[in-house]
Design brief:
The structure holds two protein chains of two kinds. By secondary structure, chain A is mostly beta strands. In chain A, the strands form two sheets. In chain A, strands 2, 4, 5, 9, 10 and 11 form a six-stranded mixed beta sheet that branches. Chain A has a five-stranded antiparallel beta sheet with strand order 1-3-8-7-6, with no helix packed on it. The radius of gyration of chain A is 14 Å and the shape is globular. By secondary structure, chain B is mainly beta. Chain B has no helices and 13 strands. The chains are: A mainly beta, B mainly beta. The interface between A and B is medium-sized, with 24 and 25 residues.
């Protein structure tokens, strides 16, 4: 089966660094995506990992360890506008659907 | 200006009525998807289509129907058989590499409320 776990909620301070974890169990792993979703809006693509290691894009970085079934999204120099839900999604070639989404982590950035 | 459009943004319907949600894309993507999002839940796949005139059921297809007559369009009908249709509906599209979906890009969503 498929299982993707993320923390439900996190709170962090403006200017700080926050790490959002995602663990997954799939039989045909073939890539992991991170999306940002502001309340009432569409998810927007942030990053993609298919090989082990860190991918950096400005203030956002994403890490993948395939052997551990683990990824994290790292947000640096937090801004108030980073308050949003962050969705982890796994591409599983052995599954019945093209992409499986976790339930998302709601991040609140406070002053 | 390429993108995915969904209309309307808000939709109200009476219980027992069928309703069709629109999704159009001009990104030249082969694949299109419909997801449903409920509070506290992840995105759940309703239907997807990798090519014109073909589509597959997702995890929660019961009570929904789709068509894919044109590459650019993938309308979703919420039928009266859907037990709990009030939700936020998201359409997405992507290219497809063999059996793999590439990055999916989302439309702005339609919030359906059934009264």
């Amino acid at each position: 089966g498929q299982n993707i776990d993320q923390p439900t909620e996190m709170t962090a301070t403006e200017g700080a660094i926050v790490q959002i974890n995602c663990t997954y169990q799939t039989s045909g792993f073939n890539g992991l995506f991170w999306y940002q979703q502001h309340a009432g809006e569409a998810p927007t693509f942030l990053s993609y990992n298919v090989l082990d290691g860190l991918e950096e894009k400005g203030r956002f970085s994403s890490f993948l360890s395939r052997s551990k079934g683990y990824s994290y999204l790292l947000l640096k120099e937090l801004q108030m506008k980073d308050s949003a839900s962050y969705l982890c999604a796994v591409r599983d070639l052995a599954g019945n659907t093209p992409l499986v989404f976790g339930k998302g982590t709601r991040l609140s950035v406070i002053a | 200006d390429g993108g995915i459009t969904q209309s309307p943004k808000y939709l109200f319907r009476k219980e027992g009525q069928n309703v069709t949600l629109s999704c159009e894309q001009n990104l030249n993507h082969d694949a299109m998807y419909w997801y449903r999002q409920d509070p506290g839940q992840g995105l759940r796949l309703i239907y997807y289509s990798q090519i014109v005139n073909d589509f597959q059921k997702g995890d929660i297809a019961e009570g929904y129907s789709v068509s894919r007559e044109k590459k650019e369009s993938f309308p979703l009908t919420v039928t009266s058989a859907q037990k709990n249709p009030t939700a936020f509906y998201l359409c997405a599209s992507s290219t497809y590499e063999g059996v793999r979906t590439d990055t999916q890009y989302f439309g702005p969503g339609t919030r359906l409320t059934v009264l």
